[in-house]
Amino acid sequence: MIRAARDGDVLTLTLDRPEKANALTAGMLTALLGHVREADDLRLMILTGAGDAVFSAGADLGEMRAGLATSPLWEEVSGAIATMPCLTVAALNGTLAGGSFGMALACDIRLAVPHAAFFYPVAKLGFLPQPSDPARLARLVGPARAKLILAGGARLDASEALAFGLVDRIEPDPVAGARDLAPGSAEHVRAIKAMVP
Q: What is the percent of the chain with per-residue pLDDT over 90, rounded to a whole number?
């Protein structure tokens, strides 16, 4: 389930399946894509997960075996997030794993709790990453570290992710931290975002 809450020009989207580590189904990806595409006049979009342990474990295992791992939905979601004119923040309430990496990489800013872990085990599982993920990851952490994470299957803790540049700040409450960002008007935030390559 995707829970959407709008407060003025701030939209919070929550991956709400904590009993399954917020693992994503095709239905959840479709709903998320719809919320992102329908959002307008926003200053800030926050993407987070329910619970206090896992942002998302990636694809639901049952659906992954049925083809979700290679679905174009992943790329559609991350592409839609990447082109949002507002400031986008991944408020990582816990571990970020697998296919959910793409949506976090597509955000402008990533905030994470101190106990978060990060891993993208595509090589181990016999899949390739989403097409846009390697370039986005390399822009953040550099080519060698991107290969370490994707091909090497390295698992990072929050402090190492911060040192690598994968996350921008460690926050005890990343949703609250995200709400403190983008203090200007929606038009001002859009203009500044467009000025930054």
A: 85
How far apart are alpha carbons 145 and 106 in whole angstroms? Answer: 18
Which fold is adopted by the domain 2-195?
A: 2-enoyl-CoA Hydratase; Chain A, domain 1 (3.90.226)
For 47-100, write each residue's pLDDT tens digit. Answer: 999 999 999 999 998 898 788 988 999 999 999 999 999 999 999 999 999 889
